[in-house]
Amino acid sequence: MPGKYYTYYQQVADRMAPYLAGRRVSIEHRYPGSQHLVFRRHPSGADSTQWIYIDEPQQIVDWVWQYAEGFHGHIRAEDGSAWFVLDIDARSLPLDMARLATRDAAGILARQGLAPLIKFSGSNGFHLMWNVPDSNELSDAALWEIEQRVVAAVACEVERLLEDDADAAPIRDAVGPDKLLITTSSADREQRGGLLFDQLILKDNAPFRVPFSVHPKSGLVSVPLRVEELETFDPARATPEVVAEAWAALPIPDYPLQQVRDAITAWEADGC
Question: At residue 87, what are phi and psi to the nearest 5 degrees?
């Protein structure tokens, strides 16, 4: 008996495989009769030196036959290039609050020439991402440092915009007076009511849910979105059945590392 989403992944494997190619892959498994997800990085549990790689659509289907439900590509690819990512989570707030922050973050990035791919997280937030091919010149430590600076700076810029946005009132109500609307740490005990721009995911062997992966806890799909689709996106449409029927794949844009560095310089000069 194949895995739960076997039919879905058969239909979207061609669209999804390019996002996984050329990088280590982490897979969420749920074995028959179990309520628990197992996060798997290695083809054989006995050999931790070998990593899962997926370069062809049929490999996705084969893993789903073995009860895979979700797929994550490692942020750093085998050739040293890297995705730059922002993970914006509404947490206990309505998804619309993450939508506001994502709209503002996308605009902030675009003004620096870094227009990102946007995607629904599959849960209560959105992801923004782009690829930096020449980040292979960076050590792992230097990569995570610059990625975290991007997250911190964009969060700071978005914070300023939300402070003056009447539509963001539910965030202010949740965090209380004189507190930041956004935290960049899921471990921040002082700010649990607001939005999360998660820096802690940016570390060695960091995985990131790829477009068209199911989010096993919600049963919804992490679908790519055009920026103009963000405002009207309805997560109820992100079901495997709807997505498999017609949802288009979108490219992850490429930008040079110097453009990212220039953006950080501009944001930091602006006080962020």
Answer: -110, 105
Q: Which CATH class is domain 82-203+253-269?
A: alpha beta
Q: Which pLDDT belongs to residue 46?
A: 66
- Residue-wise pLDDT for 38-76, tens only, equals 888 888 766 777 899 999 999 999 999 999 999 999 999
Does residue 134 contact residue 239 with C-beta atoms inside 8 Å?
A: no
Q: Quick one: pLDDT at residue 189?
A: 62
In sequence order, which ranges of 134-238 are alpha helices (DSSP H)?
Answer: 140-163, 169-175
Q: Are 179 and 194 in contact (CB under 8 A)?
A: yes
**pLDDT 10s digits, 244-257:** 998 999 999 999 99
Outline which parts of the chain fall under CATH 3.90.920.10. Answer: 82-203+253-269
Q: Is the pLDDT of residue 35 over 90?
A: no
Tell me the C-alpha distance between 133 and 169, whole Å: 39
Q: Which residues of 172-186 are buried (b: 16+ CB within 10 A; e: fewer)?
A: bebbeeeebbbbbee
Tell me the pairing of strands 82-89 and 125-132: antiparallel
Q: Give me the phi and psi of 63, to 5 degrees please.
A: -65, -35
CB proximity list for 269: less than 8 A, separation 6 or greater:
none
Burial class (CB in 10 A: 0-12, 13-18, 19+), 147: buried
Mean pLDDT of the chain: 92
